[in-house]
Amino acid sequence: MTAFLAKRLAVGLITLLAASVIVFSVLEILPGDPARIMLGMNASPDALEALRIEMGLDRPILARYLDWLAGMATGDFGRSYTYSSPVLDLVWERLAVSLPLAVFALSLSTLIAIPVGVFSASRRGSAADTITMGAAQVGVAIPNFWFALLLVYVFSVGLRLLPAGGFPGWGESWAQHWQAFKALILPAVALALPQAAILARVTRSAMVEVLGEDYIRTARAKGLPRTQVLWRHALRNAMIPVLTIMGLQLAFLLAGTIIIENVFYLPGLGRLIFQAISQRDLIVVEGVVMLLVASVILINFAVDICYAIVDPRLRAGR
Asked: Are residues 26 and 120 in the same domain?
């Protein structure tokens, strides 16, 4: 298991280094002057020159890349020109919204998808299987922003149960925590149901394959209860592709929620990226993209650890 995880960690570090080269090269391959792109075509020559010096554009490419890499290694991702604040501070501020939202949405997705996938696989070919997978297909096809607007119309405008948008902050009291949690319920549901539809279909496919294996027939022949065969033997062996999709979904939910965060006016990480791109704040875009790449690598490494926990063959080094 140690060799397996060490190999995965080495691959992750190489991937992070390669991503840093690609992300840094974006400024170099952009047509025109990066400083002019950030300040606009009407910027004065003095402002352009000051920003070039601030960004280090007057220095050799290799020296700038190594300084940028060393800065990231020490937690310095640069300073936003638009917000006049360190990029890392902006990210931590927005993660207070995006991270709970992502975990909330993924938890809802998992709680819905795995029981539905197991139920559908255990009744393969039946009317219940057709109905559940049909509903999952509809969930995959429906755009999450349209579903989000529908949720706002029903639960905010119609029933007046939940806020339609905005985020009050977590605060310090339990009442403030509850108001912040309520602000995330509709966005989390809007994100969770389409992801649950995908995860349910993957769970069903993996379970159908596992239920045809010899050891499942042996377990049934030994007289084990149906629920024990499904949940203890079949599901555990079907978890590898399910864990893979869950890891990808968590990575997507951290920054792929630009539309949902704009629908609900949430000051999250996805909205920060959208604002940085629209305001041409390339320093923020570079720093946030690198942090997202690192988060994806860490999530994949955590998924690899889950692989080793679920599959004893990986712990034995096979």
From this structure: no
